[in-house]
Amino acid sequence: MEEDKVLCLPRLSQVAVCGGTHGNELSGVYLVRELLKAKKNVTKQEDEEEEAVPLLMVLSHPLQQCFRYIDTDLNRCFTHASLSGPMSGMTPYEIIRARQLNTMLGPKGSHGAVDLVCDLHNTTANMGLCLITYSDCDWICLHIFRHLQANIPLRYIHFDVSNKESYSLDSVGKHGFAMEIGPQPHGVVRSNIYMAMKAGVQHMLDWVQSFNSGSTFEEGFVDVFTMVKHIDYPRDSETRTITAAIHPQLQDQDFCLLRPGGPLFQTFSGETLRYKGDEPLYPFFINECAYYEKGIALSLARKRQVMCKGIVWPLRYIHNA
């Protein structure tokens, strides 16, 4: 590859893998516990040999007792407003914890923030393995995705939200993403889902080690699903209770194109309600259990191709200096 087509990016000096941000999403909880256990068993020599990927393992919600949260959703507490607003005796526990995590991994937006945050999540939706980010031009995240996709089935989801308004734990790092996998019921750990997440994390760490060793990663196209909008369930105008469920033909069809006129909901009296959008879009987080309280029945995304630029950490230039 021609040198002028390669971006020289800084070494990833610290990577954080976080689990349990939602206490009932158990794959990440058990995987971080396993990583912490393995870390205790390595010798000093082995630790030095693995220094190419300095790894910080974090159980994000230490009060977890298989509850999603105590007072409020921790994974919505990392906006600049939440991290910098006034505190009182009535401040929700998750706001307090978010500030602790921001101190540990950030501060958000600062030079001292960890280089990469990988936050582990489960979904009840039939989404398989996904990386969810706030950027479609973060070359580190995109190249990690390309490496993972070469080894395991994977999708890249983009939420077009500014850094100031980005709300999840992964936004604290210089680079970051949520590694989301399903379907898995909340409060349950399924071996196949756990092992797929474990493989995803290991492939991510392998890529980081390769990058930190001075490997060059060539440019290439990536399919990106950019979130366009959320759709709520039909609701009673007075009680606000839902009056329909996801249509059987749509259930479990995450990332299958939903066309205008396609079945969307089925009312509890049996009527089919159809999608009235103007363009075909890709549904995901279909019937996610945790999103009932957020008024989200599913999200819709537009699929497009993004050119991922070639990158390198210029180790060889340092050695030649």
From TrEMBL:
<dbReference type="InterPro" id="IPR050178">
    <property type="entry name" value="AspA/AstE_fam"/>
</dbReference>
<feature type="active site" description="Proton donor/acceptor">
    <location>
        <position position="180"/>
    </location>
</feature>
<dbReference type="Pfam" id="PF24827">
    <property type="entry name" value="AstE_AspA_cat"/>
</dbReference>
<keyword id="KW-0963">Cytoplasm</keyword>
<dbReference type="InterPro" id="IPR007036">
    <property type="entry name" value="Aste_AspA_hybrid_dom"/>
</dbReference>
<dbReference type="Pfam" id="PF04952">
    <property type="entry name" value="AstE_AspA_hybrid"/>
</dbReference>
<comment type="similarity">
    <text>Belongs to the AspA/AstE family. Aspartoacylase subfamily.</text>
</comment>
<dbReference type="InterPro" id="IPR055438">
    <property type="entry name" value="AstE_AspA_cat"/>
</dbReference>
<dbReference type="GO" id="GO:0005829">
    <property type="term" value="C:cytosol"/>
</dbReference>
<feature type="domain" description="Succinylglutamate desuccinylase/Aspartoacylase catalytic">
    <location>
        <begin position="13"/>
        <end position="206"/>
    </location>
</feature>
<keyword id="KW-0479">Metal-binding</keyword>
<keyword id="KW-0472">Membrane</keyword>
<keyword id="KW-0378">Hydrolase</keyword>
<dbReference type="GO" id="GO:0004046">
    <property type="term" value="F:aminoacylase activity"/>
</dbReference>
<dbReference type="GO" id="GO:0016324">
    <property type="term" value="C:apical plasma membrane"/>
</dbReference>
<keyword id="KW-1003">Cell membrane</keyword>
<feature type="binding site">
    <location>
        <position position="25"/>
    </location>
    <ligand>
        <name>Zn(2+)</name>
    </ligand>
</feature>
<dbReference type="GO" id="GO:0046872">
    <property type="term" value="F:metal ion binding"/>
</dbReference>
<dbReference type="GO" id="GO:0016788">
    <property type="term" value="F:hydrolase activity, acting on ester bonds"/>
</dbReference>
<feature type="domain" description="AstE/AspA barrel-sandwich hybrid">
    <location>
        <begin position="222"/>
        <end position="303"/>
    </location>
</feature>
<feature type="binding site">
    <location>
        <position position="121"/>
    </location>
    <ligand>
        <name>Zn(2+)</name>
    </ligand>
</feature>
<keyword id="KW-0862">Zinc</keyword>
<protein>
    <recommendedName>
        <fullName>N-acyl-aromatic-L-amino acid amidohydrolase</fullName>
        <ecNumber>3.5.1.114</ecNumber>
    </recommendedName>
</protein>
<feature type="binding site">
    <location>
        <position position="22"/>
    </location>
    <ligand>
        <name>Zn(2+)</name>
    </ligand>
</feature>
<dbReference type="InterPro" id="IPR016708">
    <property type="entry name" value="Aspartoacylase"/>
</dbReference>
